Amino acid sequence: MSLPETILAPIARALEAKGYDALTPVQSAVIEDNAAGRDLLVSAQTGSGKTVAFGLAIAPTLLGEADMLPPPGAPLALVIAPTRELAMQVQRELTWLYAETGAQTAAGVGGMDQRTERRALERGAHIVVGTPGRLRDHITRGALDMSALRAVVLDEADEMLDLGFREDLEFILATAPEDRRTLLFSATVPKQIAELAKTFQRDALRITAASTGQQHADIEYKLMSVPAAERENAVINTLLWYENTITLVFASTREAVKHLSARLHNRGFDVVTLSGELTQAERTNALQAMRDGRARICVATDVAARGIDLPNLDLVIHADLPMNAETLLHRSGRTGRAGRKGTCVVIAPAHRKRVALSILRTAKVEAENIAPPTAEAIDARYRQSILANALLSGEITEDEQVSVSSLLARWPAKALAAAYLRLQLAARPVPEDITAAALEDSRQPRTREQFAGGTWFRVNVGRKQRAEPRWLLPMICKSGGVTKQAIGSIRIFDTETIFEVAADKVDSFLRSVGKNGTGERGVHISAIDGPGERPERPQPKRRPPGPPERYDPLAPRPEKADRKQRYGSSALKAEDFETTAESPRPPKPVPQDKGKPKWAKPAAEGEARQPKKKAAKPKDHKKRRSAD
After folding, report:
1. How many whole angstroms separate alpha carbon 244 and alpha carbon 390?
2. CATH number at residue 483
3. Residues 311/319, Cβ–Cβ less than 8 Å
4. Neighbours of 189 (CB within 10 A)
């Protein structure tokens, strides 16, 4: 196959020198006759060659009929990217694509020296590539002249809006000349992208470059279900199984990146990290270490790895499940690029396997269910690679002949072979052990017979602590290293929760809980009964009787018969309260003077009690003035 004749000669020569013999669907779509000179709204999946596509699309606008660009001055094209790494990658791509046109490129990205960028802009550049925040800063300070712009390209526009750059983008586009071309490239076209296109584009041509065949046809997907507590062990064993492979491992947070990379480094892996907390120099050094082979494993977050293109990247591992199908495709799209084959391994905790299957189904990709590599399988792979080592088939040089003869004369061949084997095995990391719980199918139906002879456990949280099954069950499964198929009845009471564990999982459940705990502060799990015994339900506290019926004087009095029926025949009568001579009323007890002051003495017998005199109020000597 050959390149289309519509491509300008210097651009075509650069593509041929790079090894291009055919264009991708998105690259072919942007150079058709109906797209010439128009604003474009392009949606294409990651890894489809979008950078070269918009380089081809703006080439006629920048060059016209000429083969060389004029001397550099005010920029002719502006490319906006969401992240530093993607902006620098776009600059590298456009540098070789426009190499024979004499194009000068400049960058404006956060984390770099602003003075260096301003000097490059003062010297002049044909194409400027940068991130929204830094470009707006250069425009505000007068370092970036927008008057000569002929084309503006927004790469990964959906990601820039998700990162909160809408205000910066609107400022930049409002500053650009009205007669420029505006090209929006995005993986998807949500409502906010459509609104942005409607505001800043004129009669834009919508191009949807869907790939033929299956989604990510060059990527082989594998789903690996493991116990939640052994997820990192599965990552280590996967790296050992795919030995000497350039790998990108995705984690969900910065702390997860630091923790996983530290563990891999302690195990002897050559690993670098990419996260938002690193400086631009550190991120650049990490990517350069991957490109020149000093490191073979990169642990990164989603945002830091957005749009990066690592050569010879053959393996992508999802150490943490992606949030949605779009994130899954973006992560996986880092491999299987430019016709190369790639492998994507999704590591799912056993209790979240269905979530992983739902994400894969939404992404329209089929994944093979595999078991994590065991320590025995990795050791057998080690020994096979040792036997096939290329050093064994190499010829013995003259410098080595003397030492080889000395070794053979002093030691038997079997001892030399054993020493070689020990050295080779010692240089390789030791694989991790993964329990057999990872191999069971979480979709097997539960039966009552499965829990015969099981054991009941207690969690010290209940309704008063807002305990709910939707978080209790995942916490129990994670703590015990089991799937939800091993958990039977769950009963939530006021201050505690009890649950049942299948008999064949009790021992492993106890070991895992004793080793890992629950992972929640102040929450503990303990066994409460012997096998097969069901604990008694705690008796609820009885409520105290309600208050007595209050007397309502305005209510009509019931009849005599009703009163007898209501109060019974033992109701008290008026004569019961009359006093007789035989039963005189007892005298009222006289209060003792204990504790009273000396001046408060009671009246003597037969003496009338004098009333207590009130203290005289002091007279108010201040007379009010009359109103008149």
Report:
1. 15
2. 3.30.70.330
3. no
4. 17
Tell me, what's the pLDDT at 607?
A: 53
Number of domains the chain contains = 3
| CA separation for the pair 331, 328 (Å, rounded) | 5
Give the Cα separation of 242 and 244 in Å (integer): 7
Which residue has tokens 């007890």? 589
- Examine the domain organization and report whether 294 and 321 are in the same domain: yes
With both helix axes pointing from N to C terminus, report the angle between 191-200 and 166-175 in degrees, rounded to the nearest 10.
Answer: 20
Q: Do 364 and 463 fall into the same domain? A: no
Shared domain check, 272 and 187: no
| 375-429 pLDDT per residue, tens | 888 888 888 888 888 888 888 888 888 898 898 889 988 998 899 888 888 888 8
φ, ψ for residue 535 (rounded to 5)?
-70, 150
Residue type, 230: E
Looking at 507, 527, 547, which one is the last position of a domain?
527
pLDDT of 425 reads 84
In this structure, the answer to whether residues 67 and 93 fall within a common structural domain is yes
Q: What is the largest CA-CA distance in the chain?
A: 143
CA 464 to chain centroid, in Å, comes to 30
**CA separation for the pair 521, 410 (Å, rounded):** 63
Q: How far apart are CA 38 and CA 112, in angstroms?
A: 34
Q: How far apart are CA 66 and CA 69, in angstroms?
A: 7
- Asked if residues 204 and 197 have their Cβ atoms less than 8 Å apart, the reply is yes
Length in residues, the chain? 628
Which tokens in the block code for residue 186? Answer: 């995005």
- Overall pTM > 0.70: no
